[in-house]
Amino acid sequence: MSIRLFFANKPATELRLAIAEFGARLCRAHRLEGSLVDAGRLHVTLAAAWAEHLSLPEAIWRAQTLAMTVRAARLPVCFDFTGSFRGAGRHPFVLRGSEELVELAGFRDRLRAAMQRSAFAVSSGFTPHMTLMWADRCVEDYPIAPISWQVRDFELVLSADGDHIQLGRWPLTS
What we know:
Blueprint lengths: L2 E7 L3 H17 L4 E3 L7 E5 L7 H12 L7 E10 L6 E6 L5 H16 L11 E7 L6 E10 L1 E8 L2 E9 L3
Antiparallel strand pairs: 1-3, 1-8, 2-6, 4-5, 4-7, 5-6, 8-9
């Protein structure tokens, strides 16, 4: 069984449905084959919550506890191009932003600092994106009409063999 624990932002359900439909059209247009990410699992990963020395229940408890301490104002996200990341066998076809997404990166830095204080190992690299498909090949970057939303909250997600289980959600201030 494959288990992952991570913090993420999920836009509103209506927007995720529209993104999933748009993503499916793009994948067909590019003639990509692979596994589409369904609307219920579309998200922007903020940080993986793993610590080899912790049991899963302890990691969940620590992650939920630290999430309550992270404060930030609502912030914008805008993705305006698609493209692929190179992978081993599967290539994520993603939405990304041409702008730096400075506010989202700043929030992620605050979350990362809180996680490190709680004994989580968190990579310093961060490329905001939303995976639309795990595809058979890569495609070049391509501009699209902007897809944007306000990040109003973040959540802790347990992914177990591809099923996403929300373990908590914390609002950002207005």
